[in-house]
Amino acid sequence: MNRRLEERRAYHARYKQTVKTRGKPFFPYAMFHDTVMSLLVVCLIVALAVIWKYTANEGTGEHDSGWLGKLYDEKADPGTTNFVPRPDWYFYFLFYLLRIFKWPDSVILGTVGIPTVALLLLLALPFIDIGRERRPMRRPVAMTAAVLTIITMGVLTYKGATAKEPLAAENLVLVPKWAAKQGFAGNQTAVDGAKIFAQVGCMNCHTYLGAGTSNLGAPDLSKIGKTSNRGVAGFATYVSDPSKFGNNVMPQFKDLGADNLRKLGTFLQSSGTCSPKTDTCPAAGGQ
Ligand code: HEC
Question: Is residue 6 included in any domain, yes or no?
Answer without folding.
Answer: no
